[in-house]
Write a structure and sequence with these properties.
This protein is 45% helix and 21% strand. It contains eleven helices and eight strands. Strands 6-5-4-7-8 form a five-stranded mixed beta sheet. Strand 4 and strand 5 form a beta hairpin. Helix 6 crosses helix 7 and helix 7 packs parallel to helix 8. It is globular, with a radius of gyration of 19 Å. The N and C termini lie far apart (52 Å). Pfam families: HxlR, SCP2. This is Winged helix-turn-helix transcriptional regulator. Keywords: DNA-binding, Transcription, Transcription regulation.
């Protein structure tokens, strides 16, 4: 499969020559949450990509050292794909795109595919928008079948796999609800009243967590009213 190139002596063009083709950055996005097999990518996260196109993208990324093939433990014939150090270096790029894209998810995308692991990426994007934390504590998130937490220490916040030892807050939601809250299409109060979002912890920790994520404790109607007032 031939690939068009920009043929420009420019670092941006050189990067796009490699990762600018359709589906390529989404492959890297999915490998950011851990190694995956070809069939996992084809059938679970990249629904709509053709099998030949996926194979071509994986081969190209492997040849350029962005990803690598490795055997699957306990499966002598199994093969999975993992980001290399070069591929992992794209994490800030993906998170930056996600931060920018949070406000650009259109209504037609609400019925699109949603996966629990994308909730983690959304959370990583959200903590890059809000202010730095001023208290050392952790917030646990149970999004679908994924569990991760935000660790706040030394005025920095990062997302870590698994549960913390002593979370100040535990948030539980389904992936769609969590994404809709993050994109401000659903108010937190509405999600809590519907039972699709539960929060356990003290109110001051909740306030700090919301501040970190640049969110407000309001309803969808309140958010719409405030947005209209800002425009007016």
């Amino acid at each position: 499969m031939g690939t068009k190139r920009y043929a420009q002596m420019c670092a941006v063009a050189a990067a796009l020559d490699l990762v600018g083709e359709r589906w390529t950055l989404l492959i890297i996005r999915d490998l950011m949450t851990g190694p995956k097999r070809y069939n996992q990518l084809l059938e679970e996260t990249l629904v709509g990509i053709g099998p030949n196109l996926l194979a071509a993208r994986l081969q190209m990324l492997t040849e350029h050292g962005v990803i690598q093939r490795e055997s699957v433990s306990g499966d002598g014939r199994g093969v999975q794909y993992r980001l290399t150090a070069s591929g992992e270096a794209l994490r800030p790029v993906i998170i930056g795109l996600a931060s920018w894209g949070l406000s650009h998810i259109s209504s037609y995308e609400q019925d699109g595919l949603v996966r629990s692991e994308w909730g983690r990426l959304a959370l990583e994007a959200m903590i890059t928008i809000g202010p730095p934390p001023d208290v050392d504590e952790s917030y646990e998130f149970r999004i679908g079948d994924e569990v991760f937490h935000v660790l706040c220490e030394n005025r920095t916040a990062r997302v870590v796999d698994g549960s913390p030892d002593d979370p100040a807050l535990v948030v539980t939601a389904d992936p769609e609800t969590f994404i809709r809250i993050g994109t401000e299409q659903l108010g937190i109060l509405d999600a809590m009243l519907s039972g699709n979002l539960t929060v356990s912890g003290d109110s001051t920790s909740l306030s700090r967590c919301l501040r970190l994520l640049d969110l407000e404790l309001n309803s969808t109607a309140q958010a719409a009213s405030e947005a209209h007032a800002d425009v007016s």
